[in-house]
Amino acid sequence: xxxxxxxxxxxxxxxxxxxxxxxxxxxxxxxxxxxxxxxxxxxxxxxxxxxxxxxxxxxxxxxxxxxxxxxxxxxxxxxxxxxxxxxxxxxxxxxxxxxxxxxxxxxxxxxxxxxxxxxxxxxxxxxxxxxxxxxxxxxxxxxxxxxxxxxxxxxxxxxxxxxxxxxxxxxxxxxxxxxxxxxxxxxxxxxxxxxxxxxxxxxxxxxxxxxxxxxxxxxxxxxxxxxxxxxxxxxxxxxxxxxxxxxxxxxxxxxxxxxxxxxxxxxxxxxxxxx
Length: 275
Hints:
Blueprint: E1 2-7, E2 9-10, E3 28-29, H1 32-45, E4 48-54, H2 63-76, E5 82-87, H3 97-105, E6 108-116, H4 120-125, H5 132-145, E7 148-155, H6 163-177, E8 181-186, H7 194-197, H8 208-221, E9 227-231, E10 240-244, H9 248-260
Parallel strand pairs: 1-4, 4-5, 5-6, 6-7, 7-8, 8-9
Antiparallel strand pairs: 2-3, 9-10
C-alpha cells in the first residue's frame, strides 16, 4: 500500500508553511484529460490508500473538475480511503457548503488550511490575502461539510513587534473554529528575507526563546475541546504532541521547561532542523 500525489496545477502567490521567499509561480491548471489518464495509469500499477492533490491549492479549481477527479480516483484506485488537499481560505469564498459536501461525499476527506495567523495586521504585513473573517468563514464551511480541517499557524510570523497579538488572535481563531488538527511551524527564509521585507520592512525575527514564549502564549489562549496538536515539523526546535484540551497543562510544562531550562529540554540543533 502507498500514498500518491496527483500534481495538476501550479499556484501563483506566496508559498505557505515555513517559506516566504519562494519565487512567484504562475497558476496553470493541467489539462483535465491528462490528469484523468494519469490516475488511470497509476491505478493499474499501484495499490494506493491515500491521495494528495497537488501542487498548490486544488480547491481553487471548479467543483465540477474536482468531482471528475475524485470520481476517477474512486473508479481506478478503489483502495483509497482518504483524499486530501491544501486549502487557501479565500478559495472557498465562491464554494457553497453544499458543493463542499459533494466533494466530501466523493472522497475529499481532509483539507490542510494554511491560516498562518489569526491577526489581521500580521496577515496584511505578509501580504497573505486573508483576514480573520475569511479564515473563520472557510474553516466553518469545511467543518459543516464534514471535511477534516488541519490548520497551520506560523510561529514567529509577526516578528518581535507583533508576536503577542499574533499569538492571541491565532488562539482566538482556533477557539472559534475548533479544528480537528492544529500544528505550528517556525517561519524561516532559506532563500533570504528580501521579498518578505518588501511589505514588512521592520520585521525582526524571533530568537529561540522568543519563539517558545510565543508558543506558550498561544497555548495559554487555546480553549479547544478535542483537537490533535502537533509541533513536530522539521522547522520546530521543540517537538510537542498532544490533544487539546486534555494535554494542555503537559504541553505548557514542556514549553516552560524549554524556556527556563533549555539544556534539559531535548531541543533540535540547527543542523537537525532540515531547513
